[in-house]
Design goal:
By secondary structure, the chain is mostly helical. About 75% of the residues lie in helices and about 0% in strands. It has one domain. Helix 4 crosses helix 10, helix 5 crosses helix 11 and helix 7 packs across helix 8. The longest helix has about 30 residues. It is globular, with a radius of gyration of 20 Å.
Length: about 300
């Protein structure tokens, strides 16, 4: 994370990030409009193309360009340089995602059941359904090729590009002093969830975003966070594909969910996670040998 003696450096970085993001959004919009002429509007290929342009230009492009402007070493600031991470953070990610699935699914259920005044709820549900429809078009294709493209574009590319922008850029810019680390992680997670414009998945997405942020902070590398994000997305892609083929009938998001009673599976999941983080964080995640982001990032003085 950024080490700075003045709050102005972080603020300047955030202003640069916002300006670059706006510029990249214009470029991405123009490029997507031009390329959409080669696809059928509303088709799976149309939405995949839009997703690829957004990920590469708006997310990856914004992250790299922002650090290129304010830093002599953009890859190091993103958390991508060096090879200090062992296998342990990746194993830890798998363990946490598996152990936390019942808890996360229960929170997804509670979030989806929230009610609001009629006008507000209608608007929120409309945005949710619009996003869900696009996701359904992208994922509900039963061919083997659709599975490969789904994992590559929705799983891996989206995981990589969103971590580029949110954890590698925004979170690292927000952290300018040690006491701001937790705040930076959670603020980034909230923004990350909010920009998806799907409130009925807001709270579980915040928790996932915070986990990705802590993985970056603990390990000193963006790669384990990218792996966590890509794995989470890819699991959704794979299970949706299996459902479309009729191979499985159970929804992965219903695993461990209890409706109308005490959520015992979620409680058990939470207890096990607390024990794991209490005794396993240092072994699996914390990088004590390699130079972490906290110690090495440089910002150009201008």
């Amino acid at each position: 994370m950024i080490q700075s003696n003045s709050g102005g450096s972080a603020l300047r970085g955030l202003l640069i990030l916002f300006g670059v993001l706006m510029a990249m959004a214009i470029v991405a919009g123009m490029l997507a409009t031009w390329l959409s002429g080669y696809t059928v509007s509303g088709s799976r290929s149309f939405y995949l193309l839009q997703s690829v342009v957004q990920n590469l230009v708006m997310f990856c492009g914004t992250g790299y360009a922002t650090w290129r402007i304010i830093s002599p070493d953009p890859l190091k600031n993103l958390g991508l340089s060096g090879g200090g991470c062992s296998w342990r953070p990746y194993a830890g990610v798998v363990i946490v995602l598996l152990l936390g699935m019942p808890l996360l699914n229960q929170i997804i259920h509670y979030n989806s059941e929230m009610t609001f005044p009629a006008g507000l709820e209608s608007w929120l549900r409309g945005m949710e359904e619009a996003g869900a429809e696009v996701t359904r078009i992208i994922l509900d294709a039963p061919s083997a090729g659709s599975l490969v493209t789904g994992v590559l574009f929705v799983g891996v590319l989206t995981g990589l590009s969103e971590e580029f922008l949110f954890r590698g850029t925004l979170q690292n810019l927000l952290v300018k002093r040690g006491h701001m680390r937790a705040a930076a992680i959670w603020v980034t997670a909230i923004i990350f969830s909010a920009v998806h414009l799907q409130f009925y998945g807001f709270f579980p997405r915040v928790l996932l975003g915070a986990f990705f942020g802590y993985v970056l902070y603990w390990s000193g590398s963006l790669w384990p966070a990218v792996f966590a994000h890509a794995l989470n997305n890819s699991l959704v892609v794979v299970f949706t594909w299996l459902e479309a083929r009729g191979t499985v009938t159970a929804d992965i998001e219903n695993l461990g969910v209890i409706r109308g009673g005490i959520p015992w599976w979620a409680i058990l999941s939470l207890v096990i996670l607390i024990i794991f983080f209490r005794y396993g964080t240092h072994y699996f995640f914390i990088n004590t040998k390699a130079q972490t982001l906290d110690n090495g990032l440089k910002i150009r003085n201008r």
